[in-house]
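Running log. JK asked me to keep both predictions on one page so they can be read side by side. First protein, sequence followed by its tokens:
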Amino acid sequence: MPARNSGIAARLAGAMVACGLVLLLALGSALAADGVSGRRAALVIGNTAYEHLAKLPNATNDADRIRDVLERANFEVTLGKDLDKKGLEETILGFLRTLNDGDVALFYYSGHAVQVGGHNFMLPVDATLATSYDLEVQAYNMSSLLEYMRETSSLQIAILDACRDNPFANNSYYVGQAKVAVEGKKGLASVAPQDGTLIVYSTAPDRVALDGNDGLSPFTGTFAEYALKPNVEVRKLLSDIRAEVIKRTDGRQTPWDASSLTSSFFFVTRQNLLIIEDMREVRVPPAPKEVALRISPPITSGNAELTISFTKLPDQGTLWLGDQQLSLDSKISADRIEEVMLKPASAEMTGDEVRYTVTTDSGRSASGIVRVVVDAQAVAEAPVKPALAIQPGEEPKPAQPEQAKPILVAMASDIGTGFAAMPEEVVRSSAPTGWLRLEKRDPETQVAVDGQIVSEGDLIKAEDITKLRIRPSLKVVSASDTEAPVAETVAMAPQTNTGKADTSTDGLEVKPIPLPADKAPAKPSVRTVVLMPAVKTVAPAPITINVAVSVNECDTLAAEPLDVQAVADGKLPNDIDVPKALAACKAAVDQHPEVARFKYQYARALYAEGNFKEALTELNAASDAGHVRASYLLGRLYQFGAAVERDPSRAIPLFEAGAKRGDPYSQYALGRALVTGLGTKVDVERGMAMVTSAAESGHTYAMNMLGGEYFYGEHVKKDDARALKFITESADREDVFGMVLLGVLYRDGAGVQKDPARAAELFEKARANGHPYAGRLLGRMALRDKSADIQTVAGWYRESAERGDAWAAYFAAGLLQENPTLRRDDGEVARLLALSASHNTKDVSADAKSDLGKVGNTVVGKEVQLALQRAGQDIGDIDGKLGSRTREAANSVLGSDAPRAPRDLLIALLRKEWIDSRPRLDMLGS
């Protein structure tokens, strides 16, 4: 898909004649996925206040300056300053959320960055780089970010004003499975861009950039001065910037770029729209004393300066502007064109013609003609000067023409629901006429007309206001935003009992949109767009559009953490308020059926309710519509055989799709499958790289897996220190799996001083927060150290078994066999063994199934009957004898393919019962 330029100015320049007007404008390209072309999103990061590395005095100033420039160039900007690693992860995630299938994605970075192993890494302000293991935990690979940008946009630009000194505190670092020496490495590595990508470096490869001493770096200061020059293609722009930076630094710094662009790109494209009256006929009676030509003022986009010259003077008279006679050499301001008069040379004038040319300050021009026709039927014009209405004793006052009234429009929009249309009632009544100019837009708001993004200064036909669309930024409304004083906006749109607007507010014509009670937050964030009449008047009447922006309740109740397509931080499955989420998300799906995010979040609420059939329907719909987290969860269901037939191979393409978009959950799941060979061919190197990318984005499960892999050494070389680095990072983020793994290290003294008390403390904290097998670990350690009674250990085992830990169920069954007095009933051992077998867990489920074979047939039969009874089936007496009635009940619960062997049937029934209990699948291994 070709890159698109913003504004109507991206259209092919040419001349058109329509409704007596000459239009010079440029016309558009293919539309983006949401039907709007020209969308732009940018990530701008500046890091100054480094805690352990040298501070960079200008980096945050650079970021602020670039943010201003890009907002003026119609980018939706995500800004981050002085970010630690968590802040960097969150800011990048916020940026990825704004990228959904746009046109141009841009990344600007000012701060410390390093090259290691041919990769460039940006460093957050809390980075130390003190050990060989720090880079992969503390830094962020810029190539990963470029890959995510490439999946969601047609043109990508990276601008890197980094590498200002050498921050290395160590001489080698791990990158993947390799340990890379970095001695002598300076600056950034030159990376070959893929098609449609432009990478701009503030200095040449392997060279160090200068900080600058005037508040901005030499490169950023120059870029900011040049980038907003209209109609300069980016490659020409960069050449000009390069020459200027070389000049300003006396040759010490040479900006560099690597391009694989396949189309042109302009930061600013001025809308080449010049509108004049191509033909005017003035009919006058015989023997006029003077003729007012009343030429309509020309209109141009971008507030360009216009001058008018005359290319043909009248044959039978002269042209005058006030007391000045005009000649072919005269140039007058377009603002005074209406004042030009023709004075006939004699009373016998038979008709005449005047020709003129309008020229913009950029050199564009268009010509018009005024024909004066003498007509005996014509009515003499009123005096040129305004009539005076004089009462005795009063000073003369000019008659006042009726002024147009300003229009205030109130709209509401939920974040992430696309471009909102202008209210129909505004379109139907009091619609303006002529041409309008986009005078102002909130930087976090994009405006489109007829499927094309428009910029400040662009012109819009008044009748095209029906095609005007507004989209708020795809960002979460922060607490500070919701404190904005917006009561005035609401007060300007009072409603009567009939629902009609009261238009008596200080002469304003108010056209409000009544908001439903559930869609009108008390303190919404407001985004403002202002349209002005293009023709300058003494008292212009603006159209002010205030958009009350809020987060849909479905997003606040059912979004998922780290979802790259969410607009809220999200909730874990067991934190969802199911009744509220179901109602809110069903309403959101009904109101916005085109938004895949709502389908996915509705599926989460349905799953939390236990309505797996409907959840699966919504999940498939969201996945088909391109929601990557929906694809991830669908893949997990195929891995587990939950709500669908188990088929791990079907999960792989679903994970692949999400991983390309930068979804850390998908990257982790794909990497785990590749490392273990679950549903796909084993590829440890690629799998570990995928998991590393997920960890880089802050996914603690990925950190845990990396820690476990380096600790156990099953698939990669064992490295206790490397394991400790990942595991500690996860535990510090309050991840229960990180706590458990760190507890294991303290329990065994692996890489740390052995400390059983610290291990028990970590296991207990993880258990209390829902970890599935922390209780089993506590129990095993307590039995070894005799630190807890056997009844407490049995309780821990049961809890972990209920959470889905096959080992805990197996150990619990063994403990109860050795201690019959602890059993809750005679069938508990059979249930625990069947539950353990049902999870199909390596190294334990087969043993559990074998031990289940040693349990008496009657006990197994009774457990089958009890399971069917708990499922709502009427199976008669609980006697352990399985017959046709049991078979029919089992088929009803499981389907027509219910296993015939009693033990297999019990395993299947307990599996379904466990799934129906809505377990935390996200907390279980595959």
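And the second, directly underneath as requested:
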Amino acid sequence: MAEAHQAVDFRPSLTSDPGKVELSAPVLQEIYLSGLRSWKRHLSRFWNDFLTGVFPASPLSWLFLFSAIQLAWFLQLDPSLGLMEKIKESLPDWGGQHHRLRGVLAAALFASCLWGALIFTLHVALRLLLSYHGWLLEPHGAMSSPTKTWLALVRIFSGRHPMLFSYQRSLPRQPVPSVQDTVRKYLESVRPVLSDEAFDWTAALAQEFLRLQASLLQWYLQLKSWWASNYVSDWWEEFVYLRSRNSLMVNSNYYMMDFLYVTPTPVQAARAGNAVHALLLYRHRLNRQEILPTLLMGMRPLCSAQYEKIFNTTRIPGVQKDHIRHLRDSRHVAVFHRGRFFRVGTHSQSGLLSPRALEQQFQRILDDPSPSCPHEEHLAALTAAPRDMWAQVRRSLKTQAEEALEAVEGAAFFVSLDSEPAGVSREDPAASLDAYAHALLAGRGYDRWFDKSFSLIVFSNGRLGLSVEHSWADCPISGHMWEFTLATECFQLGYSTDGHCKGDPDPTLPQPQRLYWDLPDKIHLSISLALRGAKTLSGNIDCHVFPFSHFGKSFIKCCHLSSDSFIQTALQLAHFRDRGQFCLTYESTMTRLFLEGRTETVRSCTREACNFVKAMEDKEKTDAQCLALFRLAVDKHQALLKAAMSGQGVDRHLFALYIVSQLLHLQSPFLDQVHSEQWQLATSQIPVQQIHLFDVQNYPDYVSSGGGFGPADDHGYGVSYIFTGDEAITFHISSKKSSTRTDSHRLGQHIKDALLDVATLFQEGQRLKRRCRGSGEEDSEHSCGSLPCHTGGSRAPMTPANF
């Protein structure tokens, strides 16, 4: 989501002195460290790896195999063909009375070796099967014989009842694409936005790069792909996120919203109690690996590595580079209210506190009349400051207030009890929804601890929201957690008739611990400067959220089109009408088909999309001509999406090549130009991954309304969208008020018009458009009528866009 801003703003800060080291030493050292980090992660997860590493077998299968061998031995049969006798002879001779024990040990050793060989064979076979991506190319509703055979084999080798990390050992590694293919695809992607002269110059730089530097840089990437778990992901985390020196607020973090139109209870402490309890239930299931791995098509597993750092995680600032601190467990949350910090324990001797007990603790904080200490109220603004500044101040803070700082950074997550209401209001629903998004993305600049993996925001009227730090994982991971939280706290935990959590308070609980900060005078100025910068950054962000309810995924499905490709192509039309020109478009998609994969960029502004947009703006073009071009644009986007998902994208490969060039101190004008590109339109779809948790048909309002992020460019837009049920789409748009070229509300209107204009190309679409335009904008915001559609024409496979 917010990664587009980070991707174009990173600057590798490499401290190696080229005059004192060999040319290849820095890159070899980085490759070595990448592999070392991978192996350290494996060792730290040894026990979980053992439990899941034997999958699809189980420890009981060893016992069954051992028993079968013992039974065969008792029946004077030798399934080992003499191997057990040799093993028995090699064991120490403990005397005649231990002769039987030697036989049992020999059988156990043989069973273990045979069991391990079978498991290894299963892992290798499954990894080879999962390396096949031909299923991605299959048209929707059709399946070739090779894919059917592959599907059957995957089901056979996948086993039953997998745990969250069961497939990690069987996932293939992300391949390094051909550098010639990457450069060709790159030139194709920039052709629509460059003049003939600029394109010829770029093509010449590309050819020079291929001739002089590409083979060397590619060789190092191949070397890293053999040694490390993933050839790009650790560098992506380090250079794009952890080495960024910008403020996390707006530039890196993103937000997730509550239900759009309903609030289960208006009692702030009760909503906080249920939500915190639900989040900790999710953590408990995560620790026990009871969360099912995500499976595409019901059988193709995605990498689960990012789930490990959801809780107990903090991004610690450094002068040149941050680092992620993850604790194995934390039994408290840090709470902020009216400028004060509290430590709230989440467990008692009998286990996790009940929702009612947590509500009691939060209500005690709300009722606490004590004032904040001097400068304490704005202390968290330091986490919104540039990272170098915050790193220096934190050193003094750690010396003077180590206990309080540890209580916040060592918490399971951060909770902000906001003193103001939020959400949709009847008086001004549009403006209140925009303010809600702004409060989640930036707040006041000092009421979020932006370093925490995520902050839970509970507003005074019971509304919820998340503010998520981006470096540790991508949106689908926090989105999965958020879906579980909303469904659990609302449908399973529930509330009593008076709006409180169910159950009884616990009067024996100790009071929440107030945290006190001994702030030296030299920190006061830093807090003031950080607060000023945070307010400036917050005040400059323009958020606009609107639900588009004229049609949704069901209409797009009827047209046999990919829902994501449909929206992306319509966004090109909307942006062209807004700015009068085409621009590079960043759409994030996942590469979690591979071990430790994160994201790839789909460059949605294609030549086919531009041809469609030009046709729509040409009054001489007929609807049939525009529709034909629209289908070509959708098909092209689908091809790019599938290539990105299967590890054949452009941008991560170019990013890794650029990092290697910097480590080798090789200047590449082509890679420098690629790195300097600006993404004036950054987009992302928020996937709904657990639709079974919600009853969309009977309770359509009880669906998450998605979230958003800041723009990637000072003169650009950030656009995210989520399909809320089958008949609505919620859009989140951001831009900067300081830009005279952008206006979030203006783009929002263009998006509405573009979607209706595209729908008009299909049969019965004109009737809908006339009805929508005739009813006025106020009515159209709340219209939920479905759109009949023409089901003929070309088909496009339905594949998930962003997971």
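Observation for JK regarding the second prediction: The CA atoms of residues 356 and 503 lie 6 Å apart.
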